[in-house]
Amino acid sequence: MDSVSLIFNVLAYLALAIFWVGVGYRLWVWAETPVPLKIPTTPAPETLSGVTARMAGEVVLFRSLFRGDKALWLGGWTFHGALLLILLKHLRYFLFPVPAWIAGLNHIGVYAGEFILIPLLFLLVRRFTLEQVRYISVLSDYLVLLLLIGIALTGLAMKFVAGVDVVAVKAFMLGIITLSPTAMPASTWFLFHFSLVLLLLVYFPFSKLLHAGGVFVSPTRNQRDDGRIRRYVNPWDYPAESGEVTTFGGG
Ligand code: HEM
After folding, report:
1. Which atom of ligand 1 lies closest to the CA of 94?
2. Minimal CA–CA distance to 197: which of 19, 4, 3?
3. What is the whole-number distance in angstroms between the Cα of residue 96 and the centre of ligand 1?
């Protein structure tokens, strides 16, 4: 194997390790952090099924964002929807055999790849132009949007500027997954695309992008508003053996 392929195989494993350990560790710390009070954002459901429905509304429809800021909701929701389609389309590089429904997403995945630039640019321009948003924005807020735009542009370049051997891409990805590294496809655009994706993986656990998993361990969202029905015990008022210690999911 050539040295560039070797380096990128090693970088891929490093990036994957940082991603999984980082995401796992941060979510575990959040999940394990005792919550001293009932703090669900009201009006909140009183039952577990109610909490599940509420969480689903947040994750699938971004309901509270919809109530708060319609323009941001439209930009954010369409961005995430397009990202989902793109990622599902990409599964054809990781799965063998490719399920028919993933293969069927090929065209819509490319449209989503073109479309995603619109919400991404909107989110970027919004940060520059809205006074209050600019005030609370930090460098990483801009950089992560630029990173995603860079990933989309280099992906589209492989489609519209200089094609890539997708069979070689698949062999490369399956090589990584099956721990039998193979040569990297000979494409400069792929090299850029893949490098930016690795950067995203490494940055993900340290960034605000972790809201993707964080929403599930957020007490304001996962707690039941049943303080008048069940006695809620502050976890550090009693030792664990009291059986009433409440952390993630127990609220
Ligand atoms: C290791 C992971 C990835 C690999 C191996 C990969 C590979 C590729 C390849 C080979 C193409 C060209 C498709 C074609 O010519 O038909 C492409 C396109 C694209 N990729 Fe990726 N990609 C990866 C991750 C990502 C991620 C995480 C994103 C988004 C954040 C992304 C966004 C895009 C977009 C928008 C396109 C253009 C539209 C399309 O053809 O789907 N890619 N990618």
Report:
1. 5
2. 19
3. 17
Assigned token pair, 243: 């059986």
**Distance, CA of 133 to CA of 212 (rounded, Å):** 21
Domains of the chain with CATH codes? 3-242 (1.20.950.20)
From 80, 90, 202, the mutation candidate for ligand 1 (largest count of ligand atoms within 8 A of CB) is 90
> Contact, 221 vs 52, CB < 8 A?
no
Tell whether pTM > 0.85: yes
pLDDT by residue, tens only, the chain of 251 residues? 899 999 999 999 999 999 999 999 999 999 998 888 899 998 899 999 999 999 999 999 999 999 999 999 999 999 999 999 999 999 999 998 999 999 999 899 999 999 999 999 999 999 999 999 999 999 999 999 999 999 999 999 999 999 999 999 999 999 999 999 999 999 999 999 999 999 999 999 999 999 999 999 999 999 999 988 888 888 777 665 555 555 554 45
Q: Work out the end-to-end distance of the chain between its first and last CA atoms, rounded to an integer number of angstroms.
A: 53
Residue identifier of the C-alpha nearest atom 8 of ligand 1? 155
- CA 211/CA 220 separation, integer angstroms: 13
- Give dist(CA 221, CA 135) in Å, integer: 27
H or E element, residue 11: helix 3-32
Distance 90 CA to ligand 1 centre (A): 6
